[in-house]
């Protein structure tokens, strides 16, 4: 509607200009009325000036409007009773657009305040900064953890702790790490997780900082309780018979009253000492196993091709007579995937996982074990050992990584505990997921 009125006004002025020009030409060439022609020429110039002024007035008004929008000024208000229809409609339209922009800004401001309020009340610290390290947002939790009232640049974190600053600088988008340092209130243990997001102007990194000290202490306490239960069970099973036999043998000789023991007492004594010796040897073996678990050497890392590693595991498996009808296959994508790890330790972990899978499939027809390697969505290398065995129940899932816990008759109970420690020394993790009767997957993540 505004454009129609504007066009009509321009067309009317152009028609008047054309009519004035024709009138001037008629007066000059046909009627020879030069004085009157000069007057008409003045009218023509006035009409041109008025047309230019009309267009400039409209353009200036639109320019003012866009300049106000550009400068974030929504207070501009144009009169709608100028007495000129086209101008009134233009002003009314610009007022509507201005009101719409004002409402959108108000809604955006409300949303921003809402999200800021949420960020201020969460217990997880949030920091966002650009590629230059300038911090644009740091919530209260982050400031409290780092001991700063104002955070403007990540270099400030260097004053908190050099190790924390280094961990933050080396943290890649999509990655996570844990770091501990000594703060004003003692040792602080933080979990850092990074996410990259882009705006029209630049890239930003969002880092979530979580204080996990309490959670780790609870987990550590739970682990100690589980370990102590297992140790108590194992030691009591060994020591109780030794104590009982010792008391029995001691009773034999106390009742002799200086007489020589008969052949039966000597025979029973020898049998008892053999049992004590056997139990003692078992206890020594148990302690040696525990020592092995607590003295894993630091990994000697090298570039390891996943496909070649799997080939070695499959070769060793084919030489094992206990493999039975269990098939072992591999899948690596991409084919040249490699990791930086201790090959011997990693082979030990994989052999243990494959053995666990084969043990679970002993009485299962059509059993298979699959080794696979890939890169996760977060860019981390994953090695998986999957089988179609009976699986692990929820009750056992919570205990499988406890040292010396085993559900096998001949198991030592240190395989998965050892595997977890080896993965921890590599800066990685081991996870177990099971759907009983369908699929069990052990995932090593580096």
TrEMBL record:
CDD domains: PAS. Residues 111-149 form the PAS domain. GO terms for molecular function: ATP binding; protein histidine kinase activity. InterPro entries: HATPase_C_sf, HATPase_dom, His_kinase_dom, PAS, PAS-like_dom_sf, Sig_transdc_His_kin-like_C. SMART domains: HATPase_c. SUPFAM superfamilies: ATPase domain of HSP90 chaperone/DNA topoisomerase II/histidine kinase, PYP-like sensor domain (PAS domain). It catalyses: ATP + protein L-histidine = ADP + protein N-phospho-L-histidine. Keywords: ATP-binding, Kinase, Membrane, Nucleotide-binding, Transferase, Transmembrane, Transmembrane helix, Two-component regulatory system. The chain crosses the membrane at residues 12-29, 35-55. One of its GO terms (biological process) is phosphorelay signal transduction system. Pfam families: HATPase_c, PAS_8. Its EC number is 2.7.13.3. PROSITE patterns: HIS_KIN, PAS. Gene3D superfamilies: Histidine kinase-like ATPase, C-terminal domain, PAS domain. PANTHER family: C4-DICARBOXYLATE TRANSPORT SENSOR PROTEIN DCTB, SENSOR HISTIDINE KINASE. This is histidine kinase. It comes from Mariniphaga anaerophila.
